[in-house]
Design goal:
- The chain has helices at residues 3-23, 42-45, 78-84, 135-145, 201-204, 250-258, 273-276, 305-314, 317-325, 356-365, 383-397, 410-419, 437-441, 458-469, 473-489; strands at residues 58-63, 92-94, 100-102, 105-110, 116-121, 162-168, 172-177, 211-217, 221-226, 241-246, 264-269, 281-286, 290-295, 330-331, 373-379, 402-408, 425-430, 494-498, 500-505, 509-510, 526-527.
- It folds into three domains: 3-21 and 288-498, Roll (Dipeptide-binding Protein, domain 3), CATH 3.10.105; 32-85 and 209-285 and 502-527, Periplasmic binding protein-like II (D-Maltodextrin-Binding Protein, domain 2, 3-Layer(aba) Sandwich); 92-195, Dipeptide-binding Protein, Domain 1 (Dipeptide-binding Protein, domain 1).
- α9 runs antiparallel to α11 (383-397).
- The chain is built from 15 helices and 21 strands.
- α11 (383-397) links the parallel β15 and β16.
- The chain is α+β, with helices and mostly antiparallel strands.
- The two termini are 43 Å apart.
- Strands 8-9-10-1-11-19-12 form a seven-stranded mixed sheet. A six-stranded mixed sheet has the order 14-18-13-17-15-16. It has a four-stranded antiparallel sheet with strand order 4-5-7-6, with helices on one face.
């Protein structure tokens, strides 16, 4: 990137950061706060950089996103799920390498035809209220995921394939599927909660994880403490208390680290590395998500594949990665990130190398020879998305497209863009709950409730249906790759990168572990 141009973009990014503080970052969650409340004690929660053990063995973690819905089976955003990972567990749970390990279930069997899953419950597992987990709790939890309290509409999409859930022999639960699926086991990470607690779960927040919920203050913090009755003694939490402090502005997160009011920050842009590398322990990885300029395919002119393809040719992905992630992000070209190596197709990132003349030709064919005007909505609490939008605006100008950045608070983005689908385009990141290709691709099927870009393609739906029903690993992988090719060919959105990120900790801390899914596991963190 020419030096002068990059300086201009840096100025634009600075203005965007100003917009962050002007617009605010989160709206309040209407969820009640339990009376058990422990207030955020910033001074006690921070660890002195000398490495001395703080009072109470507690840690404060800075996060940029407010926690908009704490229902563990309904959590729509990755930022909520990564926090609740510490409090709730399913029959199985994710490991750092992306594999699954037993949690509430000690083991399980899958029938040869891929339709029947039988789980043996682990003995000695208790909820945070001290009560033992029973088969009735498990059956209730699974039935709720399948839509028993939602007019039959599954809370977890994979449960639309469930035909029967039944307790057998006192300590086992059988789940029968309508169609074979070798991937359904990944949906069983969905949390187990006490029987009949669904309507009040956001007040009680009773799970089985290594940490027990204490309190939540909207737009401020969530507090949890070690659960001494956790079933897995070898992997019990080492910290007494963790406070997730919600601070939407990245510069304020760095200030919190330096001022010792924060002991740890996650998802920090790696462009801030020079600010933290000297005095803190820095962990660098990609975010295990796909950032894109997501286009509302139901809105003109984005309902025309020629327009979407023209926009993709107008964009220089390498330039975006250099500017936003100092070149450390990984180009994707479709809705799959590199950690899902089995399905990731790096060649798709080459399909739309910047070609301004071709972009103009396609726009002319689509009836927009002089371009058009559009808006890019972005959550203002994510600096990387704001910066990416600014670069996109500059790049699209070259083909006559005038784009305007519309920063919004996080909850507004969730309500209006993700759920309401009331937008033209948006820059954000999409993550999966597990390591299956299904999780990243099913959301683009025509009738899927997560299809917020309103993509409609009969071939795609057919290929995905075949892939999800296949029990042959090779055939399934081939079909999932074909589905990605369709998304790329149709330029359903402008997929950019799996962004590079930093997790920064006080040097007194150790044990932080990156997962191949979107998780903040605080049970492994401890003071040296």
């Amino acid at each position: 990137m020419p030096k002068l141009k990059k300086r201009a973009l840096l100025l634009l990014a600075a203005l965007a950061m100003l917009a962050v503080s002007l617009y605010g970052c989160s709206t309040g969650d209407t969820q009640p706060t339990p009376p058990a409340g422990v207030s955020d004690s910033g001074s006690e929660a921070s660890a002195a950089q000398s490495g001395e053990l703080p009072k109470g063995n507690s840690v404060t973690v800075g996060i940029a996103q407010d926690l908009s819905n704490l229902d563990p089976q309904l959590a729509a955003t990755a930022g909520v799920r990564e926090v609740l990972f510490n409090i709730f567990e399913g029959l199985v749970k994710a490991s750092p390498d992306g594999s699954l390990t037993g949690a509430v279930a000690s083991d399980y069997e899958i029938s040869a035809d891929g339709r029947t899953y039988t789980f043996t419950l682990r003995e000695g597992v208790t909820f945070h209220n001290g009560e033992a987990v029973t088969v009735e709790d498990v059956v209730y939890s699974l039935e709720r995921c399948a839509g028993s309290e939602n007019d039959g509409t599954p809370l977890v999409s994979a449960f639309s394939n469930v035909s029967r859930i039944e307790a057998v022999d006192g300590g086992r639960v059988v789940v029968e599927l309508a169609e074979p699926s070798t991937e359904f086991i990944n949906a069983l990470t969905s949390p187990v909660i006490p029987k009949d607690s669904g309507p009040t779960i956001t007040q009680t927040m009773v799970g089985t994880g290594p940490f027990r919920f204490v309190s939540y203050t909207p737009q401020d913090s969530l507090v949890m403490e070690r659960y001494d009755g956790y079933w897995n003694r070898e992997k019990a939490a080492k910290l007494d208390q963790v406070t997730f402090k919600i601070i939407p502005d990245v510069n304020s997160l760095v200030i919190g680290l330096k001022g010792e009011t924060l002991d740890m920050v996650v998802h920090l842009p790696n462009t801030l590395l020079p600010e933290v590398e000297k005095d803190f322990t820095v962990h660098q990885n990609t975010m295990n998500l796909v950032q894109a300029l997501y286009l509302n395919n139901a809105v003109e002119p984005f309902d025309d594949p020629l327009v979407r393809q023209a926009m993709y040719y107008a964009v220089n992905v390498d330039e975006i990665i250099e500017f936003v992630c100092n070149g450390a992000g990984v180009a994707t070209g479709t809705s799959m990130y590199p950690a899902q190596a089995k399905y990731f197709m790096p060649e798709l990132a080459e399909a739309y190398r910047q070609d301004v003349e071709k972009a103009r030709e396609l726009l002319a064919q689509a009836g927009y020879p002089d371009g058009f005007s559009m808006t890019i909505t972005a959550p203002s609490n994510y600096a990387q998305h704001m910066d990416t939008a600014q670069v996109l605006i500059e790049q699209l100008k070259a083909v006559g497209i005038t784009a305007e950045l519309v920063p919004v608070e996080w909850q507004t983005w969730v309500d209006d863009v993700y759920r309401g689908r009331n937008y033209q385009s948006t820059v954000c990141g999409i993550a999966a709950d597990d390591m299956t290709a299904r999780e990243m691709l099913v959301r683009y099927m025509g009738d899927n409730r997560k299809n917020f870009i309103n993509f409609q393609n009969a071939e795609y739906d057919q290929v995905m249906a075949q892939a999800m029903a296949s029990t042959d690993d090779g055939e399934q992988t081939r079909l999932y790759k074909r589905a990605q090719e369709i998304l790329n060919e149709q330029a359903a959105s402008l997929w950019i990168q799996d962004m590079c990120e930093l997790a920064v900790t006080n040097p007194a801390l150790d044990g932080f572990t990156f997962y191949r899914t979107y998780v903040i596991d605080m049970s492994t963190v401890y003071f040296k």
